[in-house]
Every structure is written in structure tokens, then in C-alpha cells.
Amino acid sequence: xxxxxxxxxxxxxxxxxxxxxxxxxxxxxxxxxxxxxxxxxxxxxxxxxxxxxxxxxxxxxxxxxxxxxxxxxxxxxxxxxxxxxxxxxxxxxxxxxxxxxxxxxxxxxxxxxxxxxxxxxxxxxxxxxxxxxxxxxxxxxxxxxxxxxxxxxxxxxxxxxxxxxxxxxxxxxxxxxxxxxxxxxxxxxxxxxxxxxxxxxxxxxxxxxxxxxxxxxxxxxxxxxxxxxxxxxxxxxxxxxxxxxxxxxxxxxxxxxxxxxxxxxxxxxxxxxxxxxxxxxxxxxxxxxxxxxxxxxxxxxxxxxxxxxxxxxxxxxxxxxxxxxxxxxxxxxxxxxxxxxxxxxxxxxxxx
Length: 352
Hints:
alpha/beta; 15% strand
């Protein structure tokens, strides 16, 4: 009759030891994050602040604003000089073999006039829903002939690189945004072989400009063997997740992101920057369907200032802000310039 009690005590002791072990490892992890994050922040305390924006013509059009006016306002009113622009395959080759570079040529020309720099997104996966941007003909080809589909994707990428590699405004290529993110977007292909081939293709066509690969999400790490010139990360401080509602990440300290950048540099020998700093609401509906009160709930002027300061405090002093189409839409369509002015003033103050 005593044996079960002995076994129960043994199991209890084992559980206690395992709990203590995991607790000890967690404490060591927290200490390590704080230590190496703080080291990284001190190392980069004096780095030059570079604040750019992401801009997608298609998003501006979807919000119902003049996309060219939106873009030139960023250049001339907000004085933005660093952009992450898009080269959606679906827009450049809407029909197989028929190319349209007019809108992207215009964006490059306007940037060149003002001495602005561009990190050009390229590949199948680029920012904004549905993440993987391909025309219907390409989607059908993927299902019927994957080899031919891959060849067409390479042709499109080759044409983009050849067209813009000589532009004085081109700063870098941002290849396949958050490629391994399986939890967001309508994407089905996550082949490392394809990504490696695309990286080699761009480096062969244009050995001058660096190629950037972004992590799968803001907590990801580049574990694989791929060797881009730079690694980029996103930084979000809230999101809307069904059925939980608005999830806040403010408990995560700056040192978490700093430590990750430290180890990317240590283990991969690559610098890191923030390619997507959240300055746009993430609510239960698309932004243009949210009331002003709802927009402010998910992204207020105070939160905008806090997010920019938080991003800079990580030590990654180069960042691209997310939401430029929303700022302009709210200013021109809703006649509320508060968001636009807050971003403008904050950028101006931080860049001095």
C-alpha cells in the first residue's frame, strides 16, 4: 500500500526539479536578453538616425486618394528622403508578356529629382495583403506548370533589376518580404531553394546594390544558410487577433529587439534595421471602415510618438514607417491632419 505514495512523491520531486530547471533557464534568458540588448544599444547610441516610409500605390488607390499626390506630399511636405517602394508582379505584368513600368518609373523619377533613396521590394512576396502578388494568369500557371511559373517569375525579376539598377535613387533590393511567414497572407510556396535562386539571380544581375532579406516576423531569426547583405525586422506593438481582440505587446522591452540584432550581427556578420515600424491601426476591420474613434483606439497620436521613440531606443536607428497611405487618407478624406502632422513633426524632431 506504501508503493503508490512513494511513486507519487518521486513524480512530485521530478516535476519540481523540471519546473526549477525551466524557471532557471527562463531567468538566464531574460538576463541574457537584457545584457546583450543593452550592449547593442550602447554600441549604436551615436548612429545616424534614418527614418523612411513604406509606400504602395495600390494601397493609396484602395483608400480612394490620389496616389501621386500622396507620394509627392511625402516627398515635399513631410520631406521624406528614404522609401521602401513596391514592384508587384501583378501590377507590372498583369497579362503574360505585357509589362507596365509607367507608375514605378514615375516614382523613381520623382525621387531622383529630390535626391531621395529607394529600397525596392522585389519578388513574389511583397508588403500589403495578400502578401503574394501575382496576376490570375500566373496563379493558374503555378497550378499547371510549376517550372514554367518559376521561369516567368525570374523573367519579371530580371526585367525589374535591369530597369532600375542604374537609377541614382536605388539604394537596395528588398527580396521577398517576410518570406517564411506562414501565418499571414495568401502564400503557398516557401521553398528555400527558390529564395536562394532569387538571391543569386539579383546578385548576379546587380553586384553593386545590397540585397535585404527580412525575418519571417518580428520575433524570427535568420537560422538558415542564406547570406543576404542585410537583415531586416518588423516591429509591431499591437495587433487585432480573433477572438481575443486587441493584443498589446508593450510588455516586450526594447532589449528584446536589440539582443536579436546583436546576435544577428555576431552569428551572421550582418547589420539589421527595422523595415516596418507600425504606425497604422490594426483593428477588426480594414482601416478605411473604422471610425476616427476606432482608428485612434488602435493607433493614436501618442502611440505614434511612442512607437517611433521605442524603435529608435532599440539601437536600430534606421527604420521605415508603416502607414503613409493612411496618414494621407485621414488628412485629405476625413479632413483630420492630426496623424499626418504628428508623424511629420516627430520625424523632423528625431532627424535633427
